[in-house]
Design brief:
Blueprint (H helix, E strand, L loop, with lengths): L1 H44 L6 H23 L6 H5 L7 H25 L3 E5 L3 H37 L1 H15 L8 H21 L3 H17 L14 E5 L3 H4 L10 H16 L1 H8 L16 H9 L18 H5 L5
Antiparallel strand pairs: 1-2
Helix pairs in contact: 1-2, 1-5, 2-5, 4-8, 4-10, 5-6, 5-8, 6-7, 7-8, 7-10
Length: 344
C-alpha cells in the first residue's frame, strides 16, 4: 500500500515538476535581459560604468530570488527565501563555503602551475590606486555572480529536475545546459564548452553531497576569483576582472586555453577529475549529515498487549514469594558455663 501511494504521488507530481522547471528556465532568460537593461540604465544615468557589472549580477540575483520564491509558493512548498535559493540555515554554512573556496583555489593553482613551469605566462602588474579599487569591485562582482549562477543552475531548477528525472540524469542535463550557455562567451571553442560541462558536473556533485549551495558557491567563487584576480587570466574568455595582475598565456592551447583562458585547455579536464575525487573525500561528513534520510524503525509493533495464553504461562512460571527469615536471639548463658566452671 505504501509503495503504491508513493508511486501514484510521483506520477501526479511529475507534470507539476516539469512545468516548474520550464518556468524557472524561462524566468532565468527573462531575468538576464531585465538585469542587463536595468544596470545599463543606472550606469549611464549616474555615471557608474565601473559598477555596471556588479549592478547587473545584483539585479539578476534579486530577480531570480523573486521568481523562484513565487514558483516555490505555487508548488505549496516552503516558500521561504532560503528554501527557494537553496541556502539552508545551518551551523556549517560558513565552513562549507570556505571549504569550497579552498578547493576552487587549489584547482586553479593546479591548472596554472604547468603553464608557469613551461614558461608560457607573461605577467604585468598595475599598482595604481584605481587598480586596487577595481580589484575590490571585481571581487564583489565575482562573489555575487557566482551565487547568481549557482542559484540559476544548481538551485531551484536543478532540484525540480532531480524530482522529475532523478539526480544522475538531472546532473547530466543541467551540465549540458550550463556548458551550452557559455558557448556565446568570447573566444569560446568546443573544448571550452566541454570543459564547462565537466565543471557543471563538479558543481552539481557539490550540491548532491550537501543539499545546499554553500559549498558550490564557495567553489565557484574560489575558482573565478583565483583565475581572474589572483592570476590575472581570462575567466571563461572574459578579461574584465584582471586589474592588479594581468597575465598573457602564450603556448599550446591544450595547456593554456588560448584567449579563453585555462577553462579552454584540455589539461583542465584532468584538473576537474581530480577535483571530483577531492570533493567527494572532504564532504563525507556533510553527505552523511544532510543527505541521508532518517532511519525509520520497521517490523511488528512491540507496544501491544501480549496474548492471554502467554500471560497465563508467565503467571504459572512465576517463582514462589520469598519468605523473610528473621534472626533468633540466642538463649542467655551464665558466665560460669561460658568459662567451663561448675556451678556452686
Amino acid at each position: 500500500m505504501n509503495a503504491f501511494n508513493t508511486a501514484s504521488h510521483g506520477q501526479i507530481d511529475r507534470p507539476l515538476q516539469f512545468s516548474l522547471f520550464l518556468l524557472s528556465a524561462v524566468w532565468l532568460f527573462v531575468s538576464q535581459s531585465l538585469a542587463g537593461r536595468a544596470a545599463l540604465g543606472l550606469s549611464v544615468r549616474f555615471n557608474l560604468s565601473d559598477e555596471r557589472n556588479l549592478l547587473t549580477v545584483i539585479f539578476l540575483l534579486f530577480l531570480l530570488a523573486i521568481g523562484f520564491s513565487f514558483l516555490q509558493m505555487i508548488a505549496h512548498r516552503d516558500s521561504s527565501l532560503r528554501a527557494a535559493l537553496g541556502l539552508p540555515q545551518r551551523a556549517t554554512a560558513a565552513r562549507e563555503w570556505s571549504t569550497g573556496a579552498a578547493i576552487g583555489w587549489g584547482l586553479v593553482v593546479l591548472a596554472v602551475l604547468p603553464m608557469a613551469l613551461a614558461g608560457t605566462l607573461h605577467v604585468e602588474f598595475w599598482t595604481a590606486p584605481r587598480a586596487f579599487w577595481l580589484a575590490l569591485l571585481n571581487l564583489a562582482t565575482l562573489a555575487v555572480a557566482a551565487l547568481a549562477e549557482e542559484v540559476a543552475f544548481r538551485g531551484y531548477p536543478f532540484r525540480r529536475l532531480i524530482e522529475l528525472i532523478g539526480p544522475v540524469k538531472a546532473t547530466i542535463l543541467m551540465s549540458i545546459f550550463f556548458g551550452a550557455l557559455h558557448m556565446f562567451n568570447p573566444a569560446a571553442t568546443w573544448i571550452s564548452v566541454l570543459i564547462t560541462m565537466f565543471a557543471g558536473i563538479l558543481l552539481s556533485i557539490a550540491w548532491l553531497r550537501t543539499h545546499g549551495l554553500w559549498l558550490s558557491w564557495g567553489l565557484h567563487f574560489g575558482w573565478n576569483a583565483s583565475m581572474g584576480i589572483l592570476f590575472g587570466l581570462p575567466v571563461s574568455g572574459i578579461i574584465d576582472f584582471s586589474s592588479l595582475v594581468q597575465t598573457r598565456a602564450i603556448g599550446r592551447s591544450w595547456l593554456t586555453g588560448g584567449n579563453y583562458g585555462p577553462e579552454g585547455a584540455f589539461f583542465t579536464i584532468i584538473v576537474l577529475a581530480i577535483g571530483v575525487v577531492v570533493l567527494v573525500r572532504v564532504t563525507r561528513d556533510y553527505e552523511w549529515e544532510y543527505t541521508h534520510r532518517p532511519i525509520i524503525a520497521g517490523g511488528y509493533p512491540v507496544d501491544v498487549a501480549p496474548p492471554a495464553a502467554h500471560t497465563a504461562m508467565e503467571q504459572e512460571a512465576k517463582p514462589p514469594a520469598l519468605v523473610q527469615i528473621l534472626p533468633v536471639e540466642p538463649p542467655t548463658r551464665s558466665p560460669e558455663k561460658l568459662l567451663g566452671e561448675p556451678p556452686k
